[in-house]
Amino acid sequence: MAILEDVKRQVSPASDEKRLTTEDGKTVEANELGENVVVAGDSTTLAVISPAAERALTRKFDIRILPVLAIMYLFNSLDKSNLGNAKTAGLEKTLGLKDHQYNLILSVFFVPYVLTAPFLAILGKKYGPNRVLPLMMFGFGCFTLLVTAVMNFGGLMTLRWFLGMSESAFFPLVIYYQTTFYRRGELARRLALFYAAQSIASAFSGLLAFGVFQIHSGSIADWRYLFVIEGSCTVLFSFFAYWYLPQSAAVAHFLSPEEKELAYYRMQVDSSSVVNEKFDFRESFKIFKQPTSYVILAIEICLGVPLQSVQLFLPQIVGRLGYDKVKTNLYTVAPNISGAVMLLVLAFASDWTRWRFPFVALGFLFTFLGMIIYVAIDVETQLHVAYFACFMMTWGTSAPSVLLDVWYNNNIAHEGRRVVLTSFGVPLANLMGVVSSNIFQNKDAPKYIPALATTAAFGATGLALTLLLGAWMIIDNQRRDAKAGKKIEVRDIPTEKLRDGPGVPEFRWFY
Question: What is the DSSP letter of 496?
Answer without folding.
Answer: G
